[in-house]
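Cilia- and flagella-associated protein 263
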Amino acid sequence: MQLKQKEEMGEVLNEVDFQQLKIENAQFLERIDERNQDLLQLKLTTGDTLQVLNCYKKRLQNTMVESTHLAREISVRNDILQRIELETEQVEQERAKAESINKKLRKQLSDYRVPDVLEYVQEKMEQEELEKNVRTWERKVEIVEVNVRYIWPINTK
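Structure:
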């Protein structure tokens, strides 16, 4: 009954048509196999590419960590350098002050004149003579003051 309906509709397959369909089916299966081989090759290539990509990502991550570490290191070293420069300026100023004081003292030392021994002895003798005279005069003043206290009131009576 189905064959009759198909014959009426013209859908009955002839032997030639069936052979033609087998050939086309074989060709399509061949193309599918080729495409599957291409797909497998692409999957292998994709896997290799992903491995390389992951390797590069890991290297990039390590490089970024190292870059951050080096940036901090550079910052610390710049701070140290600035402190050293400030200390160098301070030391240079202190050195300049010490040098000027040293020059001043050297000038004083070069201008200093030590008297001759004979001159020194003579000056020392004069100083002792003057001190002796001062003591003598102070003694005389004390005597006069004592006399004035005791004698003066008597004479005024």
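The chain has two domains: 2-112, 117-157.
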